[in-house]
Design a protein that fits this description.
The structure is a single chain. By secondary structure, the protein is α/β, with parallel strands linked by helices. The chain folds into two domains: 2-114 and 297-325, Medium-chain alcohol dehydrogenases, catalytic domain (Quinone Oxidoreductase, Chain A, domain 1, Alpha-Beta Complex), CATH 3.90.180.10; 128-267, NAD(P)-binding Rossmann-like Domain (Rossmann fold). The protein has nine helices and 15 strands. The strands form three sheets. Strands 3, 4, 5, 6, 7, 14 and 15 form a seven-stranded mixed beta sheet that branches. Strands 10-9-8-11-12-13 form a six-stranded parallel beta sheet, with helices on both faces. A two-stranded antiparallel sheet has the order 1-2. α2 packs across α3. The longest helix has 23 residues, at 120-142. The radius of gyration is 20 Å and the shape is globular. The two termini are 15 Å apart.
């Protein structure tokens, strides 16, 4: 028997959340059985467990879009018993049972062996948030946005994706401008490598389609009016990388910045990202992440603490990364 968080839907369309004892026979019949060590709490997980948005497509559901652990059984030739593995996205916690469980049974098409540099906990401190941040940095690089081109804006900078984006960009030699509504966290952002910090309210006002050119690139985690403001101030030939919609999924701007300044808009999908790109991202994370800084942004919780932390995350009261020790009492 093992413990897992179970989400169920009631007749009135609300979610119930409980920690239940399950058996291996309760798990889906997939290729690889994993003894889970750690999972994470992401913004999408918080929406799922609080039922704020219809993230979950099938019930009952074990939430958790990330997991890291040890292979205990495998019919996939690429993985053997004892392999330490991680999985990000790929429908976990939405379509298929996810990581907030002491055991999981998954397909191997998106599964990755943990790089030797990392422990299981470190991979979950990175999690989908850090893996997404690395995909965003790779996108800037592939669009030829090098450190000499100018400052990079990171929005939602105290969140998981934002925090690790700041950390990675600084390590790679970029000048980082962090936008946040939590000005009490200025020292936190400076410790991650932000050279300049601005109030997100300055980016929340209505703007003209074209404003003064400031940023060579943008990693945006919030969308809506903040994204429109960022777009208006990207330098000629710059690139915006989109990987979140915490403020909203609208984009109130025009085509003018794209036509008159030749800027690019690039979207990041971390859920079904091809395996080759996942592997590239994790190889780069193993090379470029600062493990000391990474440790400073994480908090460790148990399964029983997930719901309260999810509520706090949606209220904007969480910074950095939340790691779930699924075996913690």
């Amino acid at each position: 028997m093992f413990k897992a968080i179970i989400l169920k839907k009631t007749e009135d369309k609300t979610n119930t959340l409980s920690i239940e004892d399950l058996s291996i026979d309760d798990l889906p019949k997939e290729e690889i059985l994993i003894e889970v060590e750690y999972s994470t709490l992401n913004y999408k997980d918080s929406l799922a467990v609080t039922n704020k948005l219809p993230i979950v497509k099938n019930y009952p559901m074990i939430p958790g879009i990330d997991l890291a652990g040890i292979v205990r059984n495998s019919s996939n030739k690429n993985f053997v018993i004892g392999d330490k593995v991680l999985l990000n996205g790929s429908g976990l916690g939405e379509i298929s049972w996810g990581g907030m469980s002491q055991m999981a049974c998954v397909k191997g098409n998106y599964l990755i062996k943990i790089p030797s540099k990392f422990s299981s906990m470190q991979t979950m401190t990175i999690g989908t948030a850090g893996y997404t941040a690395m995909l965003a940095v790779l996108a800037l690089e592939k669009h030829k946005i090098t450190p000499d081109k100018g400052e990079i804006l990171v929005t939602g900078a105290t969140g998981g994706v934002g925090s690790i984006s700041v950390m990675l960009l600084d390590k790679l030699g970029y000048q980082v401008c962090a936008a946040t509504g939590k000005l009490e966290n200025i020292e936190y952002l400076k410790s991650l490598g932000a050279k300049r910090i601005i109030d997100r309210n300055d980016l929340s006002k209505e703007c003209k389609p074209l404003e003064k050119e400031i940023w060579a690139g943008v990693i945006d985690t919030v969308g809506s009016q903040i994204l429109a403001n960022a777009c208006a101030s990207v330098k000629y030939g710059g690139t915006l990388v989109l990987c979140g919609l915490a403020q909203g999924f609208d984009f109130p701007t025009t085509v003018m910045p794209f036509i008159l300044r030749g800027i690019s808009l690039f979207g990041i999908d971390s859920v079904y990202c091809p395996l080759e790109l996942r592997q590239e991202a994790w190889e780069r994370l193993a090379r470029d992440i600062d493990l000391k800084k990474l440790q400073s942004i994480s908090s460790l919780i148990s399964l029983s603490e997930v719901l309260n932390n999810a509520k706090n995350m949606l209220a904007g009261d969480i910074k950095g990364r939340i790691v779930i020790d699924v075996n913690m009492a």
